[in-house]
């Protein structure tokens, strides 16, 4: 096997593994599959961690994970798929950040790993064993990488920033209530 063939097989494995995990997590949110909460349960959770409105947040996260993961696995529209998945994982990491890095403590390790792998695939490209390659890279152009990450970064900054402000206000309100008792 040549180095080029090995690279393409490696990218295929990364895409299938990362895309599959992301798609499964998104399916938990959207459809309640694999023990997930579906839109209703995930929406309630999203509200509890500061993402409002909860149902819309659940739909957005579920679509970014399911859609981005499926497209990554297929190697189709790889820049957009990777950027969308990375943005969703940045939102998840924000929730887990107070618990530190390691997942065993509820930290952001898993979200960071998935997000960085998705981003790396968006930048590197899907390889020759992909639908992007089969379609002549019609939706995998060089200019799409910075465009997809710029849009994702802007949306993620607004959404996570608003969530972080809500959480800070809630925590300040809880502290004030403690002092009043």
UniProtKB/TrEMBL annotation:
Parts of the chain that traverse the membrane: 71-95, 143-162
Membrane topology according to the record: Multi-pass membrane protein
Keywords: Cell membrane, Membrane, Transmembrane, Transmembrane helix
Pfam family, one: DoxX
Main location: membrane
Superkingdom as given in the UniProt entry: Bacteria
The keyword Aminoacyl-tRNA synthetase is annotated on this UniProt entry: no
Location in or out of the cell: Cell membrane
Transmembrane helix is among the record's keywords: yes
Entry similarity comment: Belongs to the DoxX family.
Protein name per its UniProtKB record: DoxX family protein
């Amino acid at each position: 096997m040549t180095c080029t063939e090995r690279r393409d097989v490696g990218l295929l494995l990364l895409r299938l593994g990362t895309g599959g995990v992301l798609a499964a997590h998104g399916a938990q949110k959207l459809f309640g599959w694999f023990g997930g909460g579906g839109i209703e349960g995930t929406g309630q959770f999203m509200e509890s961690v500061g993402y409002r409105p909860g149902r819309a947040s659940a739909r957005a996260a579920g679509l970014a994970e399911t859609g981005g993961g499926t497209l990554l696995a297929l190697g189709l529209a790889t820049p957009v798929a990777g950027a969308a998945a990375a943005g969703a994982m940045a939102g998840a990491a924000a929730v887990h950040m107070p618990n530190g890095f390691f997942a065993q403590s509820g930290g952001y390790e898993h979200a960071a790993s998935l997000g960085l792998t998705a981003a790396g695939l968006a930048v590197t490209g899907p390889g020759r064993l992909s639908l992007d390659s089969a379609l002549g890279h019609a939706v995998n152009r060089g200019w799409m990488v910075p465009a997809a990450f710029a849009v994702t970064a802007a949306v993620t900054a607004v959404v996570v920033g608003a969530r972080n402000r809500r959480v800070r206000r809630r925590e300040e309100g809880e502290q004030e209530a403690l002092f009043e008792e």
